[in-house]
Write a structure and sequence with these properties.
By secondary structure, the protein is of the alpha+beta class. The protein has 2 domains: about 90 residues, OB fold (Dihydrolipoamide Acetyltransferase, E2P), CATH 2.40.50.140; about 300 residues, Bira Bifunctional Protein, Domain 2 (BirA Bifunctional Protein, domain 2), CATH 3.30.930.10. The protein is about 30% helix and about 25% strand. The chain has 12 helices and 18 strands. The strands form 4 sheets. It has an 8-stranded mixed sheet with strand order 6-10-11-18-17-16-13-12, with helices on both faces. The chain has a 5-stranded antiparallel sheet with strand order 3-2-1-4-5. A 3-stranded antiparallel sheet has the order 7-9-8, with no helix packed on it. Strand 8 and strand 9 form a beta hairpin. It starts with 15 loop residues before the first strand and ends in a 12-residue tail after the last helix.
């Protein structure tokens, strides 16, 4: 039997129907009982008069606990006196499909009543909060819109291995595994295999998949296991092609979210959804340093020159917002020492950029070095040799110019809804001190 979602109940006025959901509230008065039942789409009031005819139903409700699940048969009536959606269900049968204990370990309806770490301990309850349910509807909309956008632009979906034999894609730490008495590692990204697809002639590929970073960071925006939306495409001639593509992708995604969930987001998160305009502002890193020092007295730490840090990213967003009224900015011309060996270079400068949104980096994008001899040389400069031997093999037999990027889905959601932490945004958070639930 197809479940009736509560958002569609108006179609069933005057009909005998069956609903299923969680018990949200119970009011047991002298002459009547009210049970509010909820599902993922909404709530409905069930009204049971206290009389001899309803004696069995009254007994069930008297022993019912909040957060139990029920299956209720009855007639749906339109009633303008009912504050909840102007309708009520008059039951003929109530089946308790599961019982909840009387007292919950957390008050999931009030996110401020417990710390985020306590809430994660009981994430299965915490996720019942309306904000959390909406958050994952929004995330679904983001991913689905981006997926449809790339499919409409002739991309092929791939699924790359997450257990790999080398640990040398970038400077980030990796998780080491015992793999049948050999060393293996959890993949930091699908980068090598996205590029293999370019060498294979796929031309345009994408993947939505987990990535793993063994970084001992406890910041608001880092996790050890997160989801990335990755893109790679061939025959791109310059960085503008990739930046332009990402602009279109994000505009499509944010437009879809705004159209579908704008009012709910404003109500539950107090956030206004702004769809950006094209082109996004673009600035060279060295020029940005000068502007941040001039306007805010900020000077990059010597050891981080050629790169960005969290403070610089926040000030970069502030500067761009003040100067251009824009939430996004592409920052280009990073130091080769701070970029991966496979980034293509021009005059020794990597042809790539970071995209900053609301004070936080959401993408590193770049043209890739596709010429075997140059790529091999750049790998050796980083001290990489045998570890990337299998990867370099891809480029020996012809490879088109290409480039791409990856978007952290959890971080994107965090910034969109301004939750303040990935712990809030991820279905189940994983960090240096978190392996449960």
């Amino acid at each position: 039997m197809k479940k009736i979602h509560f958002k569609d109940l108006k179609k069933y006025y005057g009909e005998d129907i069956t609903i299923e959901g969680f018990v949200d509230k119970i009011r047991n008065l002298q002459y009547v009982q009210f049970v509010i039942v909820r599902d993922v789409t909404g709530e409905v009031q069930v009204t049971i008069e206290k009389n001899d005819e309803n004696k069995e139903l009254n007994e069930i409700v008297s022993n019912l606990t909040v957060e139990s699940t029920v299956k209720i048969k009855g007639k749906l009536l339109e009633n303008e006196k009912v504050k909840l959606n102007g309708m009520e269900l008059i039951p003929t049968d109530i089946i308790v499909t599961s019982n909840s204990l009387d007292e919950l370990p957390i008050n999931y309806k009030d996110i401020n009543s417990s710390s985020i770490d306590t809430r994660i301990n009981y994430r299965f309850l915490d996720l019942r909060n309306k904000r959390n349910i909406l958050m994952f509807k929004v995330q679904t909309c983001l991913i689905n819109t981006m997926r449809n956008y790339v499919l409409d632009n002739n991309f092929i979906e791939i699924h790359t291995p997450k257990i790999i034999g080398t640990a040398s894609e970038s400077g980030s730490e990796v998780f080491k595994l015992d793999y049948f008495d050999n060393d293996a590692y959890l993949a930091q990204s699908p980068q090598f295999y996205k590029q293999m697809a370019m060498c294979s002639g796929f031309e345009r590929v994408f993947e939505v998949a987990p990535t793993f970073r063994a970084e001992n960071s406890n910041s608001y925006r880092h996790a050890t296991d997160f989801t990335s939306f990755d893109i790679e495409m061939s025959y791109v001639d310059n960085l503008d092609d990739i930046m332009d593509f990402e602009e279109n992708l994000l505009i499509a995604a944010l437009s879809a979210v705004k159209e579908k969930y704008e009012e709910e987001i404003k109500d539950l998160f107090k956030v206004d959804i702004t769809v950006p305009t094209k082109p996004f502002p673009r600035i060279k890193l060295e020029d940005l340093y000068k502007e941040l020092e001039k306007k805010y007295g900020f000077k990059m730490d010597f050891n981080e020159v050629g790169d960005m840090n969290a403070e610089a990213e926040k000030l970069a967003s502030k500067y761009i917002k003040e100067k251009y009224g824009h939430e996004f900015v592409f920052i280009t011309d990073f130091s080769a020492k701070k970029r991966a060996f496979y980034h293509k270079r021009e005059n020794k400068i990597p042809i790539g950029a970071d995209l900053i949104w609301k004070g936080c980096e959401i993408t590193t994008l770049a043209l890739r070095e596709h010429r075997y001899e140059i790529l091999k040389k750049q790998a050796l400069e980083k001290g990489l040799d045998k570890d990337v031997k299998f990867y370099l093999e891809f480029f020996k037999y012809g490879c088109p110019p290409h480039g791409g990027f990856g978007l952290g889905v959890d971080r994107l959601t965090m910034l969109l809804l301004e939750t303040g932490s990935l712990k809030e945004t991820m279905f189940i958070f994983r960090g240096p001190n978190r392996l449960e639930p």
